[in-house]
Amino acid sequence: MESSIRYKEEGNRLFSAKDFPGAIAAYRRGLSSLPPVEHVDEISSSLGTVQDRGQTLEERQRLEVALRSNLSLCLLRLAEKAIPANHHRQQAEQRDRTQVEQFSTEAEKECSAALQLDPDNAKLWYRRGQASLLLATHSSNDALESHVACHNDSLLLRQAESDMKQCEQLLQQQLHKQKSENTPPNVVKGTIAQIVEARNALKRIETARLDITPNCPSSSIQQQTHFLDGKRHATEQLSKISRLETNEHITQSVTIPSDCDSSTTQASSNSMSNGSTSQYRIPTPSQQKERILLLLSRRQSTTDAETRNPIQHHHKQSIFPPQKGEAYFLINMNWWETWCRHVHLFHSYSNCFDSDGQERRDVVQKRVQEVEERNKRVLRLLPPGATLPLYLEKEKKDALGQGQKDNDKMSDSSSSSDKSDDETDIELDLTEVTPGVIDNSSLILNHESLARYLHCCNNETTESDVLLQCNLVRGYHFEILPREAYAALRSWYGEVSPPISRRARNVEDLPWLSQCHPPQSSVSSNTLSVRITLYPERWNAIATHHNYNQHNVINGNSSFTCSACGSPAATSKCTKCRCARYCNRECQRSHWPYHKSHCGMTTKRQHQDEILAARGRVGLNNLGNTCFMSSALQCMSHVTPLTRFFLSDQFLTSINENNINGTGGKVAKAYATLMKDLWMGGSQFSSISPTILKRAIELFAPRFYGVQQQDSAEFLSYLLDALHEDLNRIRNPPYVVLPDVDRGRKLAICGAETWGALCRRNSSYVFENFYGLYKSTCVCPKCDAVSVTFDTFNHITLEIPRISKLNLVVVLVRDHGEQEPTLPMKYCVSIPQNGTVDDVIATLSSMSGVPASRLKLSSVLIDKCSITQLHRDGAPASSLSNEDLLVAYDIASFSDATKINAVITQRSFHQNGTTESRVFGLPLLVSFERNIVCSEVYKKVWKYVKPFVLLGHDDTQSISSFEDHIKQCLRIRVTDPTQNPRTLRTGFDGGSTSILPFASQDKIVDLIGIREKEQIVFFSLEWVDVIALTADYDKQQQIHPSNFLMVSNHTSIIDYEHRVNRLHDSSAVTLDQCFESFTQPERLDDDNMWYCSQCKEHVKAMKTVALWRLPNILVIHLKRFEYTNSLNRSKIGTLVDFPIDGFDMKKHSAYNSSMSSDSQSEELVDDEAPMIYDLFGVTNHYGRMGYGHYTAFTRRWNEAGIEDTWAEFDDENVNEVTGNEIVNPSAYVLFYRRRLTL
């Protein structure tokens, strides 16, 4: 291609000298010297790498486009030169018209050929439209009949108009991109000048149409319309096919729906010219504004006057909240802002102050408030939660900032005069830019394999199931509009992407929302009861789990996995063995070095299945204390989207060799080689050596040089940074100032602005999948000023909290009073390690609702049915132990003189010739009134034991007779503290006895002889011949003693026992506890003081770090190594209980779409990204610090789901393990993936 480049340079030189025929000859010789496309691979095979071959194809394509583009420009210059001075068609010579037609036709052909290679080149669309315009206005049609000539010219004008509109659309997209990337003003001005030139060309086309149409019969107009529709459809198909062949991104053609609002159609037809064409014309900006406000107000207005003047009568309108089932459409926020600016939907803040800056601050603020009230009226017409476009927020900020200068005339006037004329012209031109065609493609999930799989596996896929990108924010990425308003905009401007619609649903029907946003009380009557969710319900359901499978069968069709990258729905096969399948030619090229050795003998599908089963199950040789690297690499290799990115050689187009922060692509290329050996060579090697990657890393990170033991998390952090810098698509990163977080604005929009600013410097596959955002909040202790900033992270380091809680199991025996009695309740009470008995009682009181003053904690010995100790208030909790049964009794205070407390033990008596007795059950501590009679004592004691007696009896008819039978066998004996009988003063039969009479109305204080200061008595509850001695007993006559030990479990005890039974470690902490500790506020120390902008000094602020934007791949580092000082370094061996499937990170995320920095408003759209994660990799560290060993647990996953089986990687050894071994005290780094998101 060197000769073609030389011819191109020669043509450029001749063009500068205005030697257009010579330049045309040079460009054509350059085109003829280009090698054919089918021979490029053969010519470039000597270059060796796929990257070089790909670059050769791209260079050849770019060179051909440049040659054809320059050639078409020269032809257009000759065509314009051939136009005579008197350019009216009746006076032009036949020879000149023939030359114009010849040059223009050739220029159109060259532009069409170049557009097949580069359909996004605005210059080519402009030049082809210019050629069509020249053909229509200066072609030689004298030999044709008038109606035929008119027909041809009209078609050419339609083609020219279509090309010019496509040119303007591409330029507008380029302008929006330049504005978001802070492009220099001179470049922006050049783009605006091109847009203006395209519009001028459209005006010339319209003028030419007016000259031609009066001479055209109506029949020819109808014929040309049908012909052009067919031609446009054919052009679209050819464009799509050409882009598929060149493996380029396909952009759908512009389509203008024929069905539109009736009022809009009528108004449009009236505004057309005198029957010139059937072309649909866009209404003027003022008409568009009026009609959109009319459509929005129809949803809320109640009278005709309100409908005609929606803004003036807005305060009278009845605001109806969105209803269930209403459809709303998403629209790109950049497009929406451009349209709002174009039609002046909102009032501008730029007129709130004079240009000379002489307005006082209070006057400016008053004007800003007036404009703000007007804009709020417009916002109320939009769906709830709508915000002002960002350009208005900037105008408002600038207006308030201008007013704060408060008569600083010299400063304001000088700053105004320093502004160049170019900048002023650019700002004025930007306000006149039309929004162009609606394009929502940036909102749609562009991962082809995932979108295809989810579309196939969902039998009920509809238009509303268009999958969206994660982390979309309303007000920054999109806005929502009702169906009527969106249909009007689409009918005016057309649409190049699928419509994105969502329906409102009740919050109760969305469990993940109803848990986080409980329904409000009836006081707030305007609270929305419906929400619009952006993401499918299956992405938010914790219970959803699909099994991973190498061969996915979707809707009865076998969908095989690509043998190279592993993506589903591979369509092509290896032409030799017909077994290996691929998704594209690049995958086949990448896989061929590993496949060719057994391609000929691969005759059965079973052998291919064995190869796929061995993918990723390859060990890494230890090169000398490199287990830290091996464990991290094994987990990284199971990051499915990143591994596919390297296996399919897609990374080659992203390598940034000139990035000073990277390694020149060396680490990325070495990592790609290792990934291919692990996933493509599984059938050939049981283990491989990572020597190439280790050498590449040692070259740029000397700390990993040699055979010293290193930290796996530190190595992983460097690897992610190196891969990101090597694959950064931003070749010349601009200087970016992170935006401030202003009060009153949605934090979601502020966070999205920060992320957008960061993406202008960072754009790589690693950055898109591994990086997230922290939200840091600092509060000044002096003036209470609050500062919010956002920072990036690629992994989260969590400190393992110390075991600061003491978990005690306590059984609560309630005094039910007049209520129906229930079994005692068992609780798990968590108190500080240095807590006291008072802390136990206070915590139990808050959990049970029993007043702390009525709770008395004791230790019970079950074998003897006795209370061994009543713990005094204030005693240290360290004296308590779970080895003894802790029982809390609901009793009156011992200092209450009107009460008396009885300690009751239970005994069973069996009169089988010799009286036998034994203790059993739970001792009771019951409070009585001092003047209580004996019969009431029996009733109250029966309430305590009734739940034990009736346990297991469900027949209501037999319960009454069984209860009467048990009561007759029950007696209460008065004893002393040593359980010896205590004789009553008077027996019920006149003799001495220690048993309380059952039906006596005597007071127990009189019978027992209780002294006035005596507060405790002792009873023995005796069960005569009703307690079963064996397991085989009559349930209608006896009670098993185990009933008296039954209790109910509180939810706290269920969680505690689950953790102890599963982990066999009651001192373990959960991953949730680690996150809670991570997000706790902390006071900054002297070395990390924060500068307060209001106090103008460094202060010890209160800082809180929270998670804001979570990445698709969440890497969690458990900080197990601590450094007390240079000599004391230790490892924390606490077990961290982390979930394996369905880890819900929503409770640890601070993201709230409706929250602003100082208020919280209603929000219709729930734009919170799915936060359900599944674990797929764990790095383990065994041993102590500096002398340990690293291993890894991983499992494979894809779009279908995730495997249940795990593999353990111990250097070169690979073994299959069960899921029970994953959670262990050695877990060090955890790898989670966002469910169903690649």
Detailed description of the structure:
This is Ubiquitinyl hydrolase 1. It is a single chain. The chain is of the alpha+beta class and about 1250 residues long. It contains 35 helices and 43 strands. Strands 14, 31, 35, 37, 38, 41, 42 and 43 form an eight-stranded mixed beta sheet that branches. Strand 8 and strand 9 form a beta hairpin.
Strand content: 15-25%
Q: Helix fraction?
A: 25-40%
> Helix count?
35
SS-based class: alpha+beta
Distance between the termini: 40 Å
The outline comes out as elongated
Q: What integer is the average pLDDT? A: 76
Poorly predicted runs: 43-51, 86-92, 217-280, 314-318, 403-431, 449-464, 516-526, 550-558, 1156-1160
In total, the number of strands is 43
Q: What's the main sheet like?
A: 8 strands, mixed
Task: Describe how the helices and strands are arranged.
Elements: H1 2-16, H2 20-33, H3 40-44, H4 50-82, H5 94-117, H6 122-138, H7 146-180, H8 185-212, H9 218-245, H10 262-270, H11 285-298, H12 304-308, E1 327-332, H13 333-343, H14 361-381, H15 390-403, H16 409-417, H17 421-430, H18 448-457, E2 478-482, H19 483-493, E3 501-503, E4 505-506, H20 511-516, E5 530-533, E6 552-554, E7 557-559, E8 572-573, E9 581-582, H21 585-595, H22 605-613, E10 619-620, H23 627-637, H24 640-647, H25 666-680, E11 687-688, H26 691-700, H27 712-726, H28 747-759, H29 765-770, E12 772-779, E13 786-793, E14 796-799, E15 805-813, E16 825-832, H30 837-848, E17 855-861, E18 866-870, E19 885-890, E20 899-912, E21 914-919, E22 924-929, H31 934-949, H32 956-968, E23 970-975, H33 1004-1008, E24 1016-1024, E25 1048-1049, H34 1051-1063, E26 1069-1070, H35 1071-1078, E27 1082-1083, E28 1090-1092, E29 1097-1099, E30 1102-1109, E31 1113-1119, E32 1121-1123, E33 1129-1131, E34 1136-1137, E35 1143-1144, E36 1165-1166, E37 1172-1182, E38 1189-1194, E39 1197-1198, E40 1201-1202, E41 1206-1210, E42 1213-1217, E43 1227-1234
Helix pairs in contact: 1-2, 1-4, 2-4, 4-5, 4-6, 5-6, 6-7, 6-8, 7-8, 7-9, 8-17, 11-19, 14-15, 23-27, 25-26
